[in-house]
Amino acid sequence: MTSGRQVPATPRLAVLAGTPQLVCAARSLDISTVFVHDASEPAPPVAAEADTALAADLADTEALHAALAPLHAEHPFGRVLSLTERGLLPTAALAERLGLPGNSLHTVRLLQDKQRMRELLNARGIGPVHTAAPRDAADLAAFCRTTDGPVVLKPTAGTGSQAVFKVADAQAAEEAWRAFEAAGGTQPLAEEYLDGPEISVESFSHDGKHTVLAVTDKLVGPAFVETGHTQPSALPAPVLAEVTDLVHAFLDAVGLVEGPAHTEVKVTAKGPRVLESHNRIGGDKIRELLRRAYDLDVVTLTAACPFGLLSAPTAPPVPRRGAAIRFLTPPPGKVEHITLPDTTGTTAEIHLDVAVGDPVHRVRASRDRAGYVIADGPDAAEAARICEELASRVRIGTSG
User: Fold this and answer.
1) Domain final position from 259, 287, 320
2) pLDDT of residue 221
3) Digit-coded pLDDT (tens) for 168-204
4) Is 349 within a domain?
5) How many domains does the chain have?
6) Do residues 272 and 235 touch, judged by C-beta distance below 8 A?
7) Which positions fall inside the ATP-grasp domain (predicted)?
8) Residue 54: which H helix or E strand, with range?
9) With the C-alpha atoms ordered 277, 279, 284, 286, is the resulting torsion angle positive or negative?
10) Does residue 303 share a domain with residue 223?
11) Closest Cα partner for 284 from 220, 345, 239?
12) Is there a single domain that holds both residue 205 and residue 187?
């Protein structure tokens, strides 16, 4: 529990652009919730689950403060929280205006600015990576010539693997630059290509102390879009120890003090290197993988720990099973027919994001995937086998 603050008899939480799970977890803990959704959109169904719901411009800190300050004066909030990417900056800004504990606006901005984050890590010698901020294709080509191999071009503030391109050499810079702009990329950042397995690290912090909850092995397609995740990682223990040390040093460097973080890492021949990080739970159903493999409910931890209702983990949990997810990436075209395998006798679930008549696009970002299969098993290898066997029998026929 955070020291020096008197917690009201009935804890109160403001949730900005939050997931339904966060509001529901708070309710299960008898935490009063005020849910704030974007005024430019209809109220989502979760608004009805909160004790109070209101609309505000999430991009306007003054408007948020004007809406919530009177409620805070009547019955103080213990925290302002969000677990969605769009809610993280407004949450930090509002918490600072209300004088509430939590991750600083500086920290959240740093996590959402890949260039500043990389400059900080390089300055401190934490997994250094050669990087540049090219202004045009000529700059990109010049950067390519300074590296010993390929480079990656990506947006400084991008998410969902959108507008991320591997540039083979200086001769490929012009074509890559055009593709980056065509994909909506802005604020370009170029970094040396890091070769090796890609993983993600889920962690939880409390009072500035960090605990790694799980390391997830990732499958990544040619456009840097994830096609699968498996927990726990199959990497050797010494490598996982290096990864843990790197993530702890990274979270200290950026100043994260509480809540979940999702940090993406490449394991290279020179050691692990941070790719990017977010002060939220990982997407792609990693929250569900944690539940299946570790019996962990990180959403409930996020709501409960600031109020002292649950203790933050102080050591990595031991997995009780393995869990895996595989994403469905049928050929582009119009969906003509769908056939699903029988999942009877398994713990698997199949979710589709397309129906007959829908278009399927070439996979250039996470949103282009057509669905997923998720399952658990006695260990990670068996969970992955079950998942992949079922995914291979999902038939999404496309034409044109």
Assistant:
1) 320
2) 87
3) 999 999 999 999 999 888 899 999 999 999 999 999 9
4) yes
5) 4
6) no
7) 118-307
8) strand 52-56
9) positive
10) yes
11) 220
12) no
Cα distance between residue 113 and residue 349, in whole Å? 35
Q: What is the pLDDT of residues 72-112, one digit of tens each?
A: 999 999 999 999 999 999 999 999 999 999 999 999 999 99
Q: What is the mean pLDDT of the chain?
A: 94
Q: Which amino acid is at 190?
A: A
SS3 assignment, position 140: helix
Q: What is the pLDDT of residues 3-61, one digit of tens each?
A: 444 445 689 999 999 789 999 999 999 999 999 999 999 999 999 999 999 999 999 99
Distance CA 73, CA 102 (A): 19
Summarised one tens digit per residue, pLDDT across range 312-361 is 999 999 999 999 999 999 999 999 999 999 999 899 999 999 999 999 99
Alpha helices in the chain (DSSP H): 20-28, 61-74, 85-98, 105-111, 114-124, 137-146, 173-182, 237-254, 286-294, 298-304, 380-392
* CA dist list (Å): 188 to 263, 321, 336: 21, 41, 38
In this structure, the answer to whether residues 199 and 315 fall within a common structural domain is yes
Same domain (yes/no): 205, 305: yes
212 and 303 assigned to the same domain: yes
Do 93 and 29 belong to one domain? yes
CA distance 335 to 396: 7
Residue-range definition of the domain harbouring residue 207: 195-320
Q: Does the pLDDT of residue 307 top 60, yes or no?
A: yes
CA distance linking residue 94 with residue 62, whole number of Å: 9
Return the CATH number at 137.
Answer: 3.30.1490.20
Distances in Å between the Cα of 117 and the Cα atoms of 109, 135, 232, 263 are: 9, 19, 27, 12
What is residue 7's predicted lDDT score, i.e. its pLDDT? 45
**203 and 264 housed in the same domain:** yes
Q: Please, what is the Cα angle at 259 between 256 and 261, to 5 degrees?
A: 70
